[in-house]
Amino acid sequence: MFLLSDASILIDLDYVDSIERLMRIGQCEVLDVVVEECRDPKQPNIISNIEMAGIEIITTDKNIMDSALMINNPYLSYQDRMIYMYAKENNRIVLSGDKALREFCLAGDIECHGLIWLVEEFISRNILIPDEFLDWLPKLEKMGRRLPKQEIKRLCDKYK
């Protein structure tokens, strides 16, 4: 399984010290332009955590950039469009916390999932125990991360 992450997933996982768990699901990649989006003084170690986890940083080439420019969708950032094009051309599963990107990927027949899916994958593969996930919630909320309330409730009910 080849995964391609956007910034939001990496940011969320870094808040809960869990970036390295991605590699236990499959080979994970991130575009260099997305890594730059992750730079933030609030998370000074995120870039080194990405590198230490073994996530491959892909250098964005001119073809991907040019193809991304051709996508006319006001809800997608330029980086999101590059993620879409790279995933389409390289048959990757996109990981994104961005609803617009997830919907665009799914409309383009690209498999795409968010943090809730990752949590369920982690738990089903014994990469994460449910109590750890429950500990994540206040941390993510404190950092201003927005997760779908119904899905969080479903998971809390399932794992409490």
Keywords summarizing the entry:
160 residues, alpha/beta, five-stranded parallel β-sheet, 54% helix, globular
Write structural notes for this entry.
β1, α1 (7-15) and β2 form a beta-alpha-beta unit. The chain has helices at 7-15, 32-38, 46-52, 62-69, 78-90, 99-107, 115-124, 130-142, 149-159; strands spanning 2-5, 27-31, 56-58, 93-95, 112-113. The relative contact order is 0.16. The chain is globular, with a radius of gyration of 15 Å. It has 160 residues and is α/β, with parallel strands linked by helices. The model has no long low-confidence stretch (mean pLDDT 93). It starts with a strand and ends with a helix.
What is the compact description of this entry?
This protein has helices spanning 7-15, 32-38, 46-52, 62-69, 78-90, 99-107, 115-124, 130-142, 149-159, and strands at residues 2-5, 27-31, 56-58, 93-95, 112-113.
Structural class: alpha/beta
Order of helices and strands: EHEHHEHHEHEHHH
The helix fraction, in percent, is 40-55%
Number of alpha- plus pi-helical segments: 9
Q: Are there runs of 5+ residues with pLDDT below 50, and where? A: none
Based on CA atoms alone, the radius of gyration comes out at: 15 Å
Mean pLDDT: 93
User: Can you list the strand order of the major beta sheet?
Assistant: 3-2-1-4-5
Summarize the biggest pleated sheet.
Answer: 5 strands, parallel
Q: Ends: how far apart?
A: 30 Å
Report the portion of residues in β strands. 5-15%
How many DSSP-defined strands?
5
Shape, principal axes of CA atoms: globular
